Amino acid sequence: MTKDGAVRVCVLGPSGRMGRAVIDAAAGRSDVKISAAVDRPDAPGLGQTVAGQVVVGSDLRAGLAAAAVYVDFTSVAATVSAAQLARELGTPAVIGTTGLSAADEAVLAELARVAPIVVASNFSLGVNLLAGLVRKAAQALGPTWDVEIVETHHRAKRDAPSGTALTLAQAAAAGHGVAYDAVKRHGRDGDVGARPQGEIGVHAVRGGDVVGEHTVSLFGAGERLELSHRATSRTIFAAGALRATAWVVGKPPGRYDMLDVLGLR
Ligand code: NAD
């Protein structure tokens, strides 16, 4: 905490799209204060001053030591190594990096044994509400209504399908009462045959500077329901992440998500 009660925050990847958005959003809040910014040693923004007087460095240990919590929107490799060090130091975390494998998730689980962490594939209020609506719709309509999800993102996005699309697909599977891995279909190509009942399709479109769009379609006989979310600014993710940042400090060790932060569970 600073003297005025704000939570001290270390931002990872301050030169990145989301890192910048988090720093900008923090400027408008009194409950958090950026106290450190850490990027990779060859990042373009190294040595620059951000958030008033914080110089971007590459020493993660020093960055975590200067903060009560860190915010991580970087790459899978960076997120895994940061979580390993944070476990050693017991530092709480807010993690938004997507594309993590089961082995990567196990590293986060180790951190969650010693510190509270919030992990979300999407920090926006709208998408978290959408996941609840998708679950309810899938449950009410049942697997005779075909569920297909289309996501669109900017051309630089590395992972596909998006973490948000997977969260929405898992919500639909939960509504159907099945494990997602048993019914998933990521894209179609060639002679794939007729669509099996209960399959959940996810399709990724990439282009331009699209911040993030997700449409969940539920196809019945003679009708179709579409539930869509369009992010037009990264501000929504940054604002949600900072809300999580202020919330997570002081919580018992464990893994939390945005439903916990928003009190929607
Ligand atoms: P980006 O490529 O613009 O930025 C990544 C940043 O991480 C860069 O500054 C890079 O230098 C930095 N980085 C790489 N290795 C590092 C290391 N070892 N230590 C510190 N910093 C390191 O990417 P982006 O568009 O900002 O997205 C980052 C991640 O966040 C992606 O996985 C993306 O899918 C995810 N994302 C999540 C949400 C959400 O709400 N959860 C929203 C948007 C993006």
Structure description:
The protein has 265 residues and is an alpha/beta fold. It folds into 2 domains: 7-119 and 234-261, Rossmann fold (3-Layer(aba) Sandwich), CATH 3.40.50; 125-231, 2-Layer Sandwich (Dihydrodipicolinate Reductase, domain 2). 37% of the residues lie in helices and 25% in strands. It is built from 9 helices and 13 strands. The protein has helices at residues 17-27, 60-65, 76-89, 102-114, 125-141, 163-176, 180-183, 235-248, 258-261, and strands at 7-12, 32-38, 49-50, 54-55, 69-72, 93-95, 116-119, 146-153, 184-186, 200-206, 212-220, 223-231, 254-256. β5, α3 and β6 (93-95) form a beta-alpha-beta unit. Nicotinamide-adenine-dinucleotide (NAD) is lined by residues 12-13, 15-19, 38-40, 43, 73-75, 78, 96-99, 120-123, 237. Nicotinamide-adenine-dinucleotide binds next to α1.
